[in-house]
Fold these 3 entries.
Entry 1:
Amino acid sequence: MEILVLLILMIIGAFIATETRDLLSSVISVGAVGFLLCLAFLYLKAPDIAITQMVVEVLALIILIRATLHRDLTFVKGMRAKLGLGFSLFAVVVVTVLSIPFFQDLPKFGHPLLSEGRSVANFYLQEGLRKTGAANITTSVLLDFRMYDTLGEATILFTSILGALAILRRPSHKKVKEKDKEEALK
Amino acid sequence: MEFILCFFLLMVGLYAVVTKRNLVKIIIGLAIMEYAINLFLILIGYRKDGIAPIMTSTMDRVEFLRKAVDPLPQALVITSIVIGFGILALAVSIAIRIYERFGTFDINEIKKLKG
């Protein structure tokens, strides 16, 4: 029940974030959606994810606000051209219609796959404590059974931060000075 | 019902990505889609009246097995959240550079200013 309320609030927040004219309010509403998601994770008995989501959400909000402050606060009016908008909405509708058959294959909410017989998750729950010594099974999967995934994740994070720094780096002071000198000589 | 609402959230994100002209709005749409997918994976692993997959000393092992929610999607979603943050940081830095170069976030204007 709480999940439904949270989901509806999240959808409202997402709509406000996409439709409001002011970029700063849009960024703040997406932050509200993120914190509601954090609450939803708590209700779904996933405390580790709730903590991670909260940390990431704060950092993401800071970055997004940095991107919008003092910039383009003149509001962007209108949408894309009529024909392009029509095609885009058509694409959204097509994706929706094509997804409908897959809802029947989903397990019922509240009855996950692990409740039926021996699954991988069941094995983790049974043997996690004995094999890894971690009381928190999520952590034992993350840092023991699937360590390589976590290593890959760390690599991706490192690469993306390197990429962001390489894009945002200003040209060094010395080069700028040399350019000025050349222009002065001309 | 939960799955349908979650799918609707994904569609709101997709709508923002395909119809908006502002780069920041497009990035926000990507973030919303990412939220929806993470939430969907956790919803699949949820068990009714379940408990978090954390063992305490007072807990009976059989009862724990019967009640704990699925730990596998949780572990994978933590990875996915962090990767999503990396994507967001990279996208925002590219958007800031585009703004410095062209003086606008509007993708139509950027197209016009090319060359």
Entry 2:
Amino acid sequence: MPEKSMTKKKYNFKEALYLIEILRGLGVTIKHFFVRKKFAINYPEETLHIVGNTQQTMKVMDKDAQKLIDRMEVTMNYRGKHALLVDGDLGRCVACKMCETVCPFFAIYIEPEESPDPRKERSPRIFEVDLTRCAYCGYCVEACPENAITMTSFYSLVARQRPELSIQKKELRTVIK
Amino acid sequence: MPTFEIDGKKITVGQGVTVLEAARSQGIEIPHFCYHESFKSGGLCRMCLVEIEKMPKLQTSCTTVATEGMVVKTTTDRVKQARSAILEFILTNHPLDCPDCDQAGECVLQEYSHKYGPDKSAFREPKELREHIQLSEHIAYDPERCIMCERCVRYYRDVVGTEELAVMQRGAHSEITTFPGRQLDYGYIGNIADICPVGALTTKDFRFKERVYNLRTTETICPLCEAGCTIYVDAKKYTVYRVRSRNKNLTSLHEHPNRNVTALYPKVFIDAILRSSFICDDGRFGYKKAIENGAIPGPINRYEPENRTWNNVISLVAQKIKQAGSKVGGIVSPFATNEEAYAFLYLLKYISGTNTIGVIDFPGAKEFNGATKLQLRKGSQSPNLKGIEQIAGALGIKITPVEEVVASKPELLYVLGPTLNRMDAYTEKIGGIKFIVLQDFKASAFANNVHVVMPGFNFAQKDGTYTNKDGKVQRIRKAVDAKGDARNDLDILTDIIYNISGKKLGSFDNILGLMVKEIPFFNGADAAILTTGINFRKAAGRLW
């Protein structure tokens, strides 16, 4: 078996002095005295920009990610309020209950029905996501065989009463602008 | 009695037993779609191919009769390759839309495809997609999912005998339809959804209702006639979603708890096999009749409206029974279990001293249309009539019609339900009776006119035993939880008995033990071994 050996990098004079590196580090610190970038957002007076649904968010990100961060948008992989995607008039969901089955918090409730559209066999009569139970783990998105459920970047989930946080099919199908 | 070798194991089987049946008896799984124990093998699906020495080609084990000196191999590479190829062929037009399909979770094709199937298909052509057809009012047929095993066709030919179904067209276009001018009659139609190995045939009752893997299966007894067929009740939380037939003697491919422990079944038991494999549509679709429908939320006390707790109601009833003495009139529903009937009759006989009891009369089962070979229903729609008769006979209580009990104007009338609206006819005749007690799970016109209503359980909510017309004692089991403030009928009865006399009858198995000791009919019954029901009278200790 060949022996493993490591050779230590030899520093030249400039590197061994460490002085330049120290000054460079200090420079970063000093720069922040003059150049100010805002990181904290004073919610709710200030809010992050919310982009449509996740797919739209991704498109924007692909174009110019840096610009988006400057505009203080919600990040691409943020998991917020759910949405059911729609192809034309027809919802993609076939009420297969995969998301309901995989959900660790029993937050999803589905009741299937015979689909009125001939192209699909079944569709959800009731599709309910209980946001008070949901932990936004995103398993439902992973499980969906039809890519029907996604999670948007909508983060401001406030309600006066608990039932308002149990969102129904109609609300899930409207894309947040 | 040929002796032959299968996978290196020497076994002796009966004359005329096929290789597939022999393999099943040894716990060797040979995958199959079209074979079903209740009718003749067709050799259609080719899934059960095995290698037999000295035979040049692979043989379908479901049609090959085991003979002396045969050497069968079920796990060779040749067999595995054949299975994989057959599955690839079956899947050419199968949409593989398991998330959409109701059968997913109990689908034989899904299981085999996972176990033996190829991971990709050589067919690049788009799959032919077709819309579902309504075969009858109760059955929907998805031709795209059908694998042409013809189980349903052979069921109608060999078991029902009316031959309505046939395969029309050829090749990829073939589909199951009824002959022109014929239709599938209500009667034994629901069974074809049970025997369909894939999701092609589904009952309208269960279609899209719930995923099968979310349901909990309970082995119980059908309460809708005196035959007492064994059934599975599939339920979730408070709701019963469907009723299926339960195979008593035989393994049902993937769901039987002890699937490898089965005996070879001689052909003489064919009647028993049919009875165990299939149920009638009244049982399959009519179970809702015997389950919740306008349930009573809690005890009702119209005598002392302020006292509505269980303790108050029970002590009131106990006090009234004590006062009435032997002038207690008892009416029992044949839906009551043996144990409830025993506790009730015990209350009447030993505590009140009453010697007669009325049994609610249920109508006989209506005849189905068409002449079918399969006749499963027996007697009236009263599952435990025989049991009540036996217990009453043993305790020396005379059974009279309900009219006589009501007409005799007892001081107190105690009705043990479920009455299922059969007491509504007596609503006006009970006028002169001072105190009427009803135990029922369902609201009815009669329940609105009695003094005390104690909400009980329906057959899917309680444990107990039923005795069928042949005298077979069979176990019913709790499948769903009861909503609201209902209580087990047996607990109510034993509480009343305890309140009056201080005697503790105990739970259901204690009472069954008492009955075994006191009533010769129940000799040999044991709650622990009552897993599937035992015919005590003919062969004690023999499992069915």
Entry 3:
Amino acid sequence: MGVLLEIQNLSKAFTLHNLGRHIKACQNIDLSLQSGEFVGITGKSGSGKSTILKLVWRSYLPQTGSVFYESSEFGRLDLNQASERTILHLRRYELGYVSQFLNVIPRTTARRLVEQAWMEHGGAPNQAPVEAERMLGHFDLDRELWDSYPNTFSGGEKLRLNIARTMVKRPRLLLLDEPTASLDQGSKEKVRILLDRLKQEGTTMLGIFHDLEFMQGLCDREYQMAQGALGASYGQ
Amino acid sequence: MIQQQAGALLKVRNLTKRFGDGCPQCLEGLGTGNDAEEGPLHHNYCPICGTVHALRDISLDLWPGEILGIVGESGSGKSTLMRCLYFDQEATEGEFFLDPFDGGKANVLKVSAQARRAIRHTLLGMVYQNPVMGLRMNYSAVANIAEKLIAAGSRNVGTMTARASELLDQVNIPLRRMGESPSRFSGGMQQRVQIAKALSNRPPLLLLDEITTGLDLSVQAKVLDLVRQLQADLGIGMLVVSHDLGVIRMLADRTLVMLNGRVVESGLTDQILEDPQDPYTQDLVHSLL
């Protein structure tokens, strides 16, 4: 146990050159996650919750603040200051990011995508087929879909494939970007079971969700976000 | 972890290419990189002396096994950069270093012509946008690959044919067609023969210039998949030039954005696409379909 992620005074604004404007996305965020904890953030669209996740993943560059992460490879480091190379290394070996969106080379089967993820993370190529089947089965992707191309998958199926190809790398910290948005009630329930299983397995997770209801009983702590600021937590 | 400690495969420092001699106004007055300080240049062209400043102070690092994307509009200097690195064109100023050559200590722009030829044939592979640039259209596919093997010192016909078959098989060219000339192949097949040729001497660095431009979507997917597989299986470092942000998004870990011969922004590919900082990059990303 111990602190895995510690966000301090994090702020982000976007400069839109064509409009000559700055847009504030989030301000003075403080948040920390213990190892093994599941923290959820909810809030309206545009409240800045995705921004936090993307700042941790470093798709966004922050203006001020720090994101300290306890890396198994490098020790405690500030993700905001880390080199691009370090970030790529961490993404490959320690961090996972899951959404319903897939960005993959067309005409690559679901099975192959999980195999590739396994090998990218340094897994033995001869183990890849076994691992891929194990993960696809574990995360309940319909067996008929394993050898088809995922660009025609439904949102829920893409999500499960994304979880499979992220979890095959056993990340220490999993970032969940609205995994339940636009899913029907049945699919949401499946995701909930799946996340609960990940939590039982000890994965540390930071997730953003549309609805408060979904997080209840699942997350250890919940935050509400409004206008770029993080509200009080409702722990359990 | 090995990757984390290894040195850069390719280091480019202040690479500059001018077409023309330049004049005091354009050589002295070049901006420092801010748009407000473009100096006397019109885009990359000096209206006073007519010099084209195709590359201005380009610096980059490529790590072993990494794919670095280079995007920018036509005329931004992407292809000139590739050609200078492949010695098709002579850079005006600057230096570059390749780790496998002299431990990365020698500026390869300054080594002997003979050493440069050796570097070109053993350490580098190039795939041009237009297959006519990279292939002899009236020689057989096999002979095209043999040419590169001979350039690197091979002399045995048997081994060369075996290697050529292996490569063509790797890029999915049916072996029964290996004796045919690329002029009889489709654009996608020509591109794959070029890739096979570029790979023939197992170079640690591949230069790919708009390799999917002009190919239909299904063929494009095959070529992209091939590139990705080569990276995964062989750990080859690659510079991938494209004006197609979709291609860059799928292939590149990091990306440079070029405009008027300069690098205006560089970063993780998803950061460039999702949080572009430079006004030009923002325009470019907003144009993405």
